[in-house]
Amino acid sequence: MRRISGGGCRIRNMASEWIFCLDKRPCDRSREDLDIIYSRLKNVKAFDKFHPSLLQQICYYGYYEDLEKGITLFRQGDVGTNWYTVLAGCLEVQVSETANIKDAVVICTLGMGTSFGESILHSKPHQATVKTREFTELIRVEQRDFKILWERNKKLLEGVLTSLGSLTAQGGTQSRFDQTSKLRRGSQAHNTVEDVAPNPAAPISMIPSVKLSRAGHVLRTILMCRAAHMIRDRKYHLRTYRRCMVGSEMVDWLLQQGPLVHSRNQSVGMWQVLLEDGIIVHVCHEHQFKDRYLFYRFRQDDQGVGTTPSHADRKECDDELQDTLLSLAQIGPDAMMRMILRKS
The DEP domain covers which part of the protein (predicted)? Predict the structure, then answer.
């Protein structure tokens, strides 16, 4: 029997405020909640190998769990529903050739920093039983949310996953590096011409400007306060797109915000300014901004880190709205011209 990674001391006695924040549903977590969670988890050794961007998204989607010794997390043959990262403690990986728990053999243990449960990507049954060997603390991400994390962060997640299927197939002898290289080769096999072809829907700047980032924040905050129904999960062709808006409705809404916006074309140009800077994105990253039934998201929601605005934030953004609209209206015509040129 070998150990995947080292154990660690309990973190349960650390300030519990961050745990309280993790008990909330992701959509109910405020910016302050996410700051509290991130400030705690970034100092936990289990997350040393996690990229800051990935960790921020886990702060949005994750839940905290603590389990006493001897608790079965899931059984061999069960269809997975969650992905886990071990904060502290230790779990046993047990395999039975007869599917009888009495015949199960411990092939390895999972310690602090181990991430597992990726079989939920394909709703496949678990190939092993996982049981706590001692008091254990975990971060848990539900299946629907982990699929979103995987779509957005494949390369970042490849380096932190432990495949229980590989461990059971080879008796726990395959290294994490081998698993990572296989995952990477699999993702490269799906590359297409689109990877290298110019994409007119891609941002024209690598890093959003401070001014336009603030403009996007103001519009998102006002939208959530005055028209929260516009930002919601939507279905199209049997697929669900989370926390998105409809392009034509975004144009309508902007026209209703005051005399500064006086035509649909002007409204399109203002939204295109934000799309060019990466503040808003088409959900499939395929379209520039269009006054049509197409789905768009604010960057925070696309990355899975969008929060509910605080009362103070709402008041600040309300005061800034007209200045924000004026600024976007001034830049909009240039964005419209670039949009035309990028199509040709």
Answer: 231-300
Residue 5 included in any domain: no
pLDDT tens per residue across span 28-77: 888 888 989 999 898 888 888 888 888 989 999 999 999 999 899 888 88
Show the domain range for 323. 210-342
93 domain-assigned: yes
Q: Give the Cα-Cα-Cα angle 234, 236, 241 (nearest 5 degrees).
A: 40
- List the one residue out of 137, 127, 279 whose CA is nearest residue 217: 279
Q: What is the pTM of this model?
A: 0.48
CB neighbours of residue 103 within 10 Å: 11
Cα Rg, the chain, nearest whole Å: 23
Asked if 335 contacts 273 with a C-beta cutoff of 8 angstroms, the reply is yes
> Cα dist. 47→160, 189, 193, 197, 219 in Å?
9, 29, 35, 35, 33
C-alpha dist (Å) from residue 305 to 6, 26, 38, 200, 243? 30, 9, 11, 25, 11
Q: Do 149 and 282 fall within a single domain?
A: no
**Which pair of structure tokens corresponds to residue 198?**
């110019």
Nearest to 232 by CA among 249, 212, 255, 211: 249
d(CA 113, CA 111): 6
Is 216 within the bounds of a domain?
Answer: yes
Look at residue 34 and tell me if it is in a domain.
yes
Q: Are residues 162 and 90 part of one domain?
A: yes
Q: pLDDT tens for residues 165-190?
A: 655 554 443 333 333 333 334 444 44
Which CATH number goes with the domain that contains 124? 2.60.120.10
Q: Which amino acid is at 28?
A: D
Q: Which of 235, 236, 240, 231 is nearest to 297 (CA)?
A: 231
Quote the CA–CA distance of 260 and 109 in Å, as a whole number.
63
Pairing status of strand 129-132 against strand 91-95:
antiparallel
Q: Indicate left, alpha or beta for 199 from its phi (over 0: left) and psi (-120 to 50: alpha).
A: beta
**Max CA separation in the chain (angstroms):** 75
